């Protein structure tokens, strides 16, 4: 059973008729065995479909067109078992609009030293054929993933899965709608951006909906549905019984349950899997959704505070990429620092941190919210799980989008924070806070991010490559001066590439 059973990656083998029917039968047999093995591997999350051997320009064009028109196909793995003259691929690759990965492997791992002859050489010449295919990809200016190694090697499976998950992210973005309730937080720059440019490059659309429409959906939730939701809260989280027995607290809990159910129904009705709101515009809702937003994120919805639609979209996309892996993904913000022997950052937000990143069972509590509508709001409290993680920020630079990635190590807080009424994660940025923060600022990274322990840097790199998006990584190898030079070089490249 694969993680993404509703999606497919097509496996296409390249060859030609020159070798005769016996060789082509062997090519087809060995390709089928490879696909069967990939589908048995728990390390590869997307099922593969053997689409046979293509031997002519017409067959290549037909399989590329078929992939374009199949909504279940999220990408292709292309492998040249023998020599496949690359001019045959021009028409197909010119029309292919699904991402592809070039697998550079061969069926047998070791050479049969005592029996190898020219028949063996001609049948197993991936080393030869893949270079011919590689040339045409470069000649056509196609940025693609190339995975090298024997197809049974676990590292090859890992790299294939990283790419498969990137293709899942591309598919998620192309089928995503972000709902905006209220506008961008006033006077904030980095959360703005060109929505048309984003839709052209990423595929997702960003639409505004009136708070009056959302309020109607919230108010339409029945008392019976609210009661069932409260039962779910009580069975899922640590919480004091008085939240459901004290009349005034119960009213707050009922209101939050209505917010959650009304928002989810509204988002589902309009086909949105991500949303934004802002504490500056909550007319009709009565409060900023806290627990409601946290639980919607846990269900897979993307979220961005203060109208941050780029982060909202990225949270949803990364949740899809990381499906089935340990850990979670959440909307996050670098909130405050802990300077000491090892400098640290405490990440949080006013209310909205996803419980998928929690180290332990969250506590449901009610505390005063003092920004925007000042009122008591239910929310989940927890600390983030320890371990490797990363923060991702997508920003609009006018002539392009840039993705900024910082790898971090999440740690347990050295002591409790009994007066902090929000969920949080404490991390040590790589390589250290001094270099990481300076590099993030030089790159223009936002104060909001998509925080994840599910998604790898390699998957994000594959995602950026498929989209043709700039990506810069701040990790244990980063040095500020070199990083600044990388930004300057990137700027020149993307200006030249766009014809500016």
Automatic annotation (TrEMBL):
GO biological process: L-arabinose catabolic process to D-xylulose 5-phosphate
Domain L-arabinose isomerase C-terminal: 328-470
GO molecular-function term, one example from the UniProt record: manganese ion binding
Pathways involved: Carbohydrate degradation; L-arabinose degradation via L-ribulose; D-xylulose 5-phosphate from L-arabinose (bacterial route): step 1/3
Residue ranges constituting the L-arabinose isomerase central domain according to the UniProt record: 177-324
GO cellular component: cytosol
Enzyme Commission no: 5.3.1.4
Needed co-factor(s): Mn(2+)
Cofactor mode of binding and number, as noted: Binds 1 Mn(2+) ion per subunit.
Keywords assigned by UniProt, alphabetized: Arabinose catabolism, Carbohydrate metabolism, Isomerase, Manganese, Metal-binding
Residues covered by the L-arabinose isomerase N-terminal domain: 8-172
Top-level class of the enzyme under EC nomenclature: isomerase
One family name in Pfam for this protein: AraA_central
Binding site for Mn(2+): 306, 333, 349, 448
Catalytic reaction annotation: beta-L-arabinopyranose = L-ribulose
Cited function: Catalyzes the conversion of L-arabinose to L-ribulose.
Family as reported in the entry's similarity comment: Belongs to the arabinose isomerase family.
Name of this protein: L-arabinose isomerase
């Amino acid at each position: 059973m694969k993680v993404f059973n509703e999606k497919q990656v097509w496996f296409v083998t390249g060859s030609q008729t020159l070798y005769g029917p016996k060789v082509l039968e062997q090519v087809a047999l060995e390709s089928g065995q490879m696909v069967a093995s990939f589908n048995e591997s728990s390390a590869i999350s997307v099922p593969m479909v053997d689409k046979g051997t293509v031997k002519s320009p017409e067959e290549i064009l037909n399989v590329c067109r078929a992939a374009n028109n199949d909504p279940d196909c999220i990408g292709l793995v292309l492998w040249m078992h023998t020599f496949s003259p690359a001019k045959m691929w021009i028409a197909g690759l010119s029309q292919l609009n699904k991402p592809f990965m070039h697998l550079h492997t061969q069926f047998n791992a070791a050479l049969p030293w005592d029996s190898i002859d020219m028949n063996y050489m001609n049948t197993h010449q991936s080393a030869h054929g893949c270079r011919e295919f590689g040339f045409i990809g470069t000649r056509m200016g196609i940025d693609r993933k190339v995975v090298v190694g024997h197809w049974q090697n676990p590292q090859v499976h890992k790299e294939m899965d990283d790419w498969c998950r990137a293709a899942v992210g591309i598919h998620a973005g192309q089928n995503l709608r972000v709902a905006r309730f209220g506008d961008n937080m006033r006077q904030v720059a980095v959360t703005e951006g060109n929505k048309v440019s984003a839709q052209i490059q990423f595929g997702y659309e960003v639409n505004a909906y009136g708070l009056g429409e959302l309020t109607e959906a919230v108010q339409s939730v029945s008392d019976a549905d609210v009661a069932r939701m409260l039962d779910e809260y009580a069975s899922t989280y640590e919480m004091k019984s008085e939240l459901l027995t004290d009349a005034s607290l119960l009213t707050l809990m009922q209101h939050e349950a209505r917010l959650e159910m009304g928002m989810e129904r509204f988002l589902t009705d309009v086909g949105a899997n991500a949303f934004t709101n802002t504490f500056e515009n909550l007319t009709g809702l009565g409060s900023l959704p806290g627990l409601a937003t946290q639980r919607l994120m846990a269900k897979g919805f993307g979220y961005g505070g203060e109208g941050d639609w780029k982060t909202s979209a990225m949270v949803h996309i990364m949740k899809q990429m990381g499906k089935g892996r340990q850990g979670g993904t959440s909307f996050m913000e670098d909130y405050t620092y802990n300077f000491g022997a090892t400098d640290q950052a405490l990440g949080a937000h006013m209310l909205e941190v996803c419980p998928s990143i929690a180290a332990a069972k969250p506590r449901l509590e009610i505390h005063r919210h003092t920004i925007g509508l000042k009122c008591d709001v239910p929310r989940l409290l927890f600390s983030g799980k320890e371990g490797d993680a990363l923060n991702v920020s997508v920003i609009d630079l006018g002539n392009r989008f840039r993705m900024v990635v910082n790898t971090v190590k999440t740690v347990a807080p050295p002591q409790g924070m009994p007066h902090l009424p929000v969920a949080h994660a404490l991390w040590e940025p790589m390589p250290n806070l001094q270099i990481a923060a300076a590099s993030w600022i030089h790159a223009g990274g936002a104060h909001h991010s998509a925080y994840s322990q599910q998604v790898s840097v390699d998957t994000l790199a594959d995602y950026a490559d498929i989209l043709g998006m700039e990506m810069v990584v701040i990790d244990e190898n980063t040095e500020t001066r070199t990083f600044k030079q990388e930004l300057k070089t990137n700027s020149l490249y993307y200006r030249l590439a766009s014809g500016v």
